[in-house]
Amino acid sequence: MTDPRLVEITDRIIERSRATRAAYLEKVARMQSKGPARKRLACGNLAHGFAACGPSDKEALAEGDAPNLGVVSAYNEMLSAHVPYGTYMEPIRQAAHEAGMTAQFAGGVPAMCDGVTQGRDGMDLSLFSRDVIAMSTAIALSHDMFDGVMCLGVCDKIVPGLLIGALSFGQLPTIFIPAGPMTPGLPNAEKVRVRQLFAEGKVGRKELLAAESASYHSAGTCTFYGTANSNQMLMEIMGLHLPGSSFVNPETQLREVLTREAVKQLAKITTAGGNYTSLADIVDEKVIVNGVIGLMATGGSTNHAIHIMAIARAAGVNLNWQDLSDLSDIIPLMCRIYPNGLADINRFQAVGGMGYLMRELRKVGLLHDDVKTVMGEGGLTPYTKEPFLDNGELVWRDAPAESLDDAVLRPAHAPFSPEGGMKLLKGNLGRSVIKVSAVKPQYRKIKAPAVVFETQEDLQAAFKRGELDKDLIAVVRFQGPKACGMPELHKLTPSLGVLQDRGFKVALVTDGRMSGASGKVPAAIHLTPEALDNGPIGLIRDGDMIELDAENGSLVLLVSDEELQGRQHAAVDLSASHQGMGRELFAPFRASVGQAEEGATVFNW
């Protein structure tokens, strides 16, 4: 039986979304085709669509009625997680042929690596790349040649962008195919230790690079539980991956078999497969809520406080941060994966993984089971199993009855915390979110004077000069989407962590983003309205007292209303942040982007 508290939260989302969801479904219905979509094309259009195909595919596309599947891929050689996709097309094509279908590479989407661009000018394009990816997905599918979609993507903005774009073609059955994490490298605790030593000047760049290279060492997703692996969890708990497929390592036989199986499963849910299940059928209010539940139960990335908002709105669902916070209040934190613990994602997979997690949440009524998935009807039962090879054949077995390591994964009735990992903070500074799953309880409340910065570089410079060895709340503003594209401020984590380790009470308040890899220092992020929108963060002055209370959900500037009314908003010259590294091309995005709580998107849903 579904927990009544979960039902109440979901029902209010359904009611709030009634008009927008109906409008979305009406749009999808207008786009549906009773037969192959390509039959709507004129002969000249169709001839262009299969001109370069082989003879058998050309004949099938011209004369046959079998589905044609479109592949949209984020393959490139800059992202370790996406390198494996370079070999996926031929196995996909072969599996499609075996299922009596055809498959075409519909298009590629851009994919940048936040790990490469952290702290660099290119990071200013990162968040906006999500909406570019969504538009690129739409371009790939706009030829109207396809009856099903395979989305190949893993990392930060890429999966949300692919899903937002695919939802504009919600009439098409769609499956996401993962690539899997790299095998374990340097332990996360050691990586953090070296980073902090470097921040203090105690080791040099050579030692730091050696540690980083030992951590990120091969093809596959980075092994910490940041946004990339949160994406994979999200696609599985929302029923858009094959069960148990998210965290199978690349270049293994099981990984290849799962890729082929995904194609065959997609064939079953096309109009010709007898169990038609469109993307719009799957991604509804309950599935969106299930995604949020997964984020809370695992301590997922704070970036999804933005991305899942944008995804929801693309499906006509009106979600807000209060919903996330209320769900966090009832969802147990069942995982300790770095940065919320020391284990990596491979360890999580080994000790029980998604099958165990989802079965446990279902058992206590904290997951909607009356949903559709790429497995068709039947709810989430298939997702309590995990894949294995038996003499080369794919078989599904029940996930472990017990966690194999309760320091990493615990049952829902005995979690690490009775509440999830993300909270809404409200007060006279506006609304923001905080990830508390990695913050020790003694650090979740802080009252300290503000030290105000306009850039993260200014904060790092002050740290190196020894000016921050005190209790403080660092305020880093003009980092919002309108100001400079809302770059992640992950580079601040080592410096702030060092100050906390020295015994100082430290927190961060910003209208920018941190990373899914952010950890132990309390950070009120995504503060909205942002400074460039005349948000109250622009009124803060050095020395103002701020009180951050993650337990009670408050963020308050302890300055009287009368004093604030007499202040002028801070002004800053942002022109240097709008030129170079392609940033000048994104001026229309900065001018039209919405607020963080609405998904920080340029789309007007």
From TrEMBL:
Q: Which UniProt keywords apply?
A: 4Fe-4S, Carbohydrate metabolism, Gluconate utilization, Iron, Iron-sulfur, Lyase, Metal-binding
What reaction gets catalysed by this protein?
6-phospho-D-gluconate = 2-dehydro-3-deoxy-6-phospho-D-gluconate + H2O
Cofactors (names): [4Fe-4S] cluster
Gene Ontology MF terms in the entry: 4 iron, 4 sulfur cluster binding; metal ion binding; phosphogluconate dehydratase activity
PANTHER family attached here?
D-XYLONATE DEHYDRATASE (PTHR43661), PHOSPHOGLUCONATE DEHYDRATASE (PTHR43661:SF1)
Any matching Pfam family = ILVD_EDD_N
Q: Give the PROSITE patterns listed for this entry.
A: ILVD_EDD_1 (PS00886), ILVD_EDD_2 (PS00887)
Can you supply a Gene Ontology BP term from the record?
A: D-gluconate metabolic process
- Return the cofactor note field: Binds 1 [4Fe-4S] cluster.
Transmembrane segments in this chain: where?
none
Q: Does the record's keyword annotation contain Magnesium?
A: no
Q: In which pathway does it act?
A: Carbohydrate metabolism; Entner-Doudoroff pathway
> What EC number(s) does the entry state?
4.2.1.12
What is the recorded function of this protein according to its Swiss-Prot or TrEMBL entry?
Catalyzes the dehydration of 6-phospho-D-gluconate to 2-dehydro-3-deoxy-6-phospho-D-gluconate.
Domain (Dihydroxy-acid/6-phosphogluconate dehydratase N-terminal) ranges: 67-377
Q: Tell me what this protein is called.
A: Phosphogluconate dehydratase
Q: What is any one of the record's Gene Ontology cellular component terms?
A: cytosol
Family under the similarity heading? Belongs to the IlvD/Edd family.
Q: Where does [4Fe-4S] cluster bind?
A: C155, C222
Tell me the organism: Cellvibrio polysaccharolyticus
* Matching InterPro entries: 6-phosphgluc_deHydtase, Dihydro-acid_dehy_C, DiOHA_6PGluconate_deHydtase_CS, ILV_EDD_C, ILV_EDD_N, IlvD/EDD_N
Start and end residues of each Dihydroxy-acid/6-phosphogluconate dehydratase C-terminal domain? 408-600
